[in-house]
What we know:
Largest sheet: 6 strands, antiparallel
Strand content: 35-45%
CATH architecture of the largest domain: Sandwich
CATH class of the largest domain: Mainly Beta
Mean pLDDT: 89
CATH topology of the largest domain: Jelly Rolls
Distance between the termini: 67 Å
Low-confidence stretches: none
Shape: rod-shaped
Number of strands: 13
Number of domains: 2
Number of helices: 1
Structural class: alpha+beta
Amino acid sequence: MAIPHVVAGEVARAAEQNALIDVVNANTDKIADHESRIAANTSTLTTQGNRITTLEGKPVGTNSGAYFGQWTDNNAQANGIGQTISGSDGVKITEFVSAVGTPTGCSISGGTVTINQPGLWLVTVSLQYTAGSSVRALWLSPSNAASGAGLSKFGSVAGPSMDVQSASALMRFTAGGQVSAYAAIWQTGAPLNIWRARSNTITVAWLGP
């Protein structure tokens, strides 16, 4: 309804006055609704801004994979013939002598990886053997011992006539924790040797706190 202008000297009719009031009230409601939406959007933007600030302020190394190490064998040593694997207790694998890239948050010595960044890590190991049908076993233990006797075994795998064998485990470490790979001959079977072809690797990757 169009509201006519009042001419000087005229008296505004009630219907016209009420229509004007209705328009003002409707506009007031719309303004209040817009203000509410603006306030909600402002709150959302503030929340998102705070999250961005938090993410920008996070120290380097808080994302998965920020700490990583990988090592392999030296295939030039001893014409490719590596460690001898015999007995059921397990022998620590020391073939991992060549770093692949630059390790961060970890280091290796004598086949044992030392974890410097505490948290949850994924540890994987792969070995390649010389020919033979013996049942060979492979596992990971949080230790630096030369023998695997009596150690807890993580990611254990075993089978006969396996030219290549891999094991993996999720392991939690405090700073300074250690992990090594162990291989053994289970049941009965002749000793085996590691075959050095840059296929003997140990890898550790940090997943988070």
